[in-house]
């Protein structure tokens, strides 16, 4: 009986998923072949098919991994003492992802595939709900601690943040001159203003 | 020599474009045939090809018409005495368009086609620039008249509004439960808050 090495197993899975993300971001889901992923990962097709029965299984695993990373990150942010600072840090990560060509193309590719494939759509909708719940917990916690002051009901404030996050990814894909990092200071000022985050008055 | 009736000409063009918009919103650009547009418009294919050599010419005319309508509307808003109210009215129109299934699908279809076709992309980029310039004129005018107070530099405030507008259209396409009309009051409060629009303090 062959003993399976769990560390090696996880490492190979990770290698294949990282290669798949590079290929998907470069060529899109539909124009990426499993051969291209094998070549990028430096694994045989036999090895790839040992982990994933087909390309769609790889796409679903990539979306699942992205969602799981978001959940872990929001979970970490919720442990912070200053939840308003945690929220601003989350927006920094959004700007950082939007500025990263590969990450941005992958996220937009997932969004497009979600409209075409029901299974990817369902996973993406679950990721969207998870993000909304995470932002709700962050904002609610910050409000309870007096770190933010909500000028609109909590669920509307969350939806506004979701609008802003979506809009940032849209802008970079529409406007070649849009530089996410260049918007950071203004975005922080505006969000601080909306949430009346202590340390800066709305007039600052 | 046949005398062309300019009113009849404009009316037929308008009929074909309206029919094309219905078809494009229903089936997407690629899945709409010129036959389907003829059928929807109640015109012969000879008549349609008299005005448009091919489907792409119709697509470009639709995008051009949308852009021209936006330019006219922003031009009207710029004539108003209260430019901050005009800006809030513009956001109402955005929410209204986002809530209108046909308009929304058409706008998203144009955005998707813009990534696939360079000519549609160029027209769409021009529309984007026109919108940014219109918002800049509105915000700048409102600031000069003391109707808004900008907490960030003008160009960043405009980019933030563009982020919000994009994000609204994205949200309705991602989240089936997102109701643009239901966000109106909160969105107005947030935008008033950001722009320190007189009549409401940031804390209101």
TrEMBL record, chains A, B:
Keywords: DNA-binding, Repressor, Transcription, Transcription regulation. Residues 33-52 bind DNA. SUPFAM superfamilies: Homeodomain-like (SSF46689), Tetracyclin repressor-like, C-terminal domain (SSF48498). InterPro entries: BetI_C, DNA-bd_HTH_TetR-type_CS, Homeodomain-like_sf, HTH-type_TetR-like_transc_reg, HTH_TetR, Tet_transcr_reg_TetR-rel_C_sf. It holds the Pfam family TetR_C_6. Transmembrane segments: none annotated. Residues 10-70 form the HTH tetR-type domain. This is Transcriptional regulator, TetR family.
